[in-house]
Structures are given as C-alpha cells and as structure tokens.
Amino acid sequence: MRNTRQIAGMAALLGMVAACAPSSDPVYTQFYREAGALTDTGDFGNATLNNTLVLTGERQHTFDLANRFSTEVLTTVNFAFNSAQLDAGARDTLREQARWIKQFPEVRFRVYGHADAVGGNTYNKRLGQQRANAVVHFLTTQGISRKRLEAVTSFGETQPLIVTQGRERRNRRTVTEVTGFVNTHQNVLDGKYAQIIYRDYVNSAVPPSQLEGIKGADLRTEQ
User: Fold this and answer.
1) Average pLDDT for residues 13-36, to the nearest whole number?
2) Which of 140, 142, 150, 166 could form a Cys-Cys staple with 98, CB 3.0–4.6 A?
C-alpha cells in the first residue's frame, strides 16, 4: 500500500511538472518520447559551421556588411493594423533596400516578420509571415533574385519594440538583414581557388634583380 501511494505521489508530481513546463521544451517533452530523442534538437553542427565561417572570413564579412546595410538604408517597414499590405512609404523604403542589395549580388538576405500583441500568438505569427512574404515579393519585382531572399521566419508578437498589449504600429514591422553569401556565386571564392589566384599573383611579381635594372635605367634617363 505504501509503495502504491509513493508511486501515485510521484506520478502526480510529474504531472504537475509537465503541466507547468512549456509544451515545446525538449527537456521536458523527452519524458514522453523514445530514449535518445534529445541527441539532435536542431543545433547539431552549428559549432562546426561557426568555426568554418570564422576561418574563411565569411562570419566577419557578413557582420561588416550587416552593419553597413543597417546604417546606410532603412531596414524596417511598418504595416497597418491586421494588414500585410505595403503602403507607399514601405514601398519607397524597399526600393532603397533593393538599390543597396543590387550592389552585392553575392550576398543573401533574410526578412523577419513581426506583429503587435493584439490577437492570438498563432494568428500573429501567421500575419508576421505574410508580411515577410510581401516584402520578399516586392524586392523580387525590383530585380532581386528570389534565391537571395528568405522569408521563412516570423517572430509574431514575441519581439516587440514597444512593450504594450495595445495596438502599436512600430511593432507591426518587417526587418531585412544580411545573413551570408550565395555559395555558388562567381564572386565567392572557395579556399582552393583563392590559393591559385594568390600563387599566380606572387609569381607575376617582378624579380628583385629586374627591379634593380629598372631603377638604374630610370636614373640614367633622368640624368
């Protein structure tokens, strides 16, 4: 009887923990899945990817371009309440973004969609996605390749600029950011090709012996 009560108590405690835990938290939901379900929560390989980006210089170049983009153009456009339609001001801003983006055909961009806190989170996340899609579509009409634009992430109402439960235009927005490089673009060199170019560059240099002869000829010409 005592063991039965202990088991019942533990089951009740686990039930309370599960009720309080976020339904999407893998640490808690592992209790309801097969062993080893936490082997890969979606972040597997990120450390190697980050090291590769740092060693090749792409991480720093991406960071520098992102800073330049955010300082030279407006990266945010806003929307009317419960709408994913681009108004005249938004279209002007996106034309400015498109002109900047065209300068760097090897760079990729991501558009994040946001909403204010009015309405349910599921609806607002879908609305944020629609806003991101609208921005990407407009940028493609300005001659930007769809392959360079990504609109797959929406933060819904979870990242407000202004913390309020009411309507707030500044929270109803999209943000365009630099995310990396188009690996197949001709302007992006892989390591082996870069070594070949550097080797040819070094081999093309004028030998020191010839430089001395050139200096002597220049001196005689001046005299």
Assistant:
1) 55
2) 142
